[in-house]
Amino acid sequence: MDKSRNWRDIVLSDLGILVFLALAKLVIHLLTNGQYGFHRDELGMLDDARHLAWGYVSYPPLTAILMRLAWELFGQNLAWLRGYGDPPPQNLIVVGSDGEGADYFFSSCTAAATVSIPYGVENEIARDHPVIFLCRGLKMPWPQFWEEIKTYS
Predict the structure, then answer these.
(1) Is the pLDDT of residue 24 over 90?
(2) Sheet holding 91-94: strands in order across?
(3) 88-124 per-position pLDDT tens digit
(4) Could you write out the three-class secondary structure of the chain?
């Protein structure tokens, strides 16, 4: 009895067909990936930004407030959330940084708001970096900035 299998037997086996279908699906996703619009979570955040409230099931009120602020400044697009677009944005909201950290990356930063948390609840942003900045004039190319800011802490 010959135990060796030729390639046709392998390709036409159940596993071969399953692998082929998985690869075909992967190719379809890769070819159409750039055509997707908003994700449903992003649409939910935009809707919450339009209808501000004191609390949401998924996140605290500050998230929706920041989304509303970003929406007012940059319009209804989420490229700034996913990464820089083409052309790169001219303004950026900086949260959780002191003025010196923001000045390192930008030529102009203006204090736009402050974070305050009622009832004596503390967190790092409200305690150490309560100012929200609106910054302009990036001092370096966007790809370099994006690489540095992703690991900025």
Answers:
(1) yes
(2) 91-94, 131-138, 106-114
(3) 777 888 887 777 778 888 999 888 888 877 777 777 7
(4) CCCCCCHHHHHCCHHHHHHHHHHHHHHHHHHHHHHCCCCHHHHHHHHHHHCCCCCCCCCCHHHHHHHHHHHHHHCCCCHHHHCCCCCCCCEEEECCCCHHHHHHHEEEEEEEEECCCCCCCCCHHHHHCCEEEEEEEECCCHHHHHHHHHCCC
Q: Is the pLDDT of residue 153 over 50?
A: no
Is the separation of the CB atoms in 152 and 96 below 8 Å? no
- Rounded-to-integer distance, Cα 112 and Cα 135, Å: 9
pLDDT band at 36 (very low <50, low <70, confident <90, very high): low
Half-sphere exposure of 14 (CA within 13 A, CB side): 0
> Other C-beta atoms within 10 Å of 102: how many?
20
What amino acid occupies position 77? N
Cα dist. 23→14, 30, 35, 129 in Å?
Answer: 14, 10, 20, 48
